[in-house]
Amino acid sequence: MMKILMIFIGLIIAIVLLQSVADQVFNTTTTLTSTNETITTPANGTTASIAGRTLIGTATVTNGSTPVASTNVTVATALVSGAETITVTVNNVSFANLALNFSYDFEPDGFLQSSSSRAIIVLVTLFGALAALIFVVALVFSMLKDAGFVGGRKK
């Protein structure tokens, strides 16, 4: 009876810990895409920010279905208040205070830049899941052995 209780407690702890770790692994190892995100542009010569994101490559800016040239609206990554931020700067008065569509790939806040770090964090999660599985299998095997189903008869 005690071993069954140990299995349930161990599984609950393992599931809770692995679930929270797996969520964090996704956030730190996956680049994301934002498609047709509507942003109201700031006044001419000023900058708007999308905090917690680092731009990968080049953003596509459209006004409806019409592409907007990068000379009119500039999208870049900058360090704002100590955090990587995507900035939108209006360079042409005709594009100030408009709702434009932005499509871009980005790294979320906390993204691991090093590919080896991304690989290691995935392996840590995998080994955590294997440890939970081994814990359960060992306890079940021990229970079966005590009951005489495995390893000969109990004396």
From TrEMBL:
Keywords: Membrane, Transmembrane, Transmembrane helix. The chain crosses the membrane at residues 119-144. The keyword Transmembrane applies. This is Uncharacterized protein.
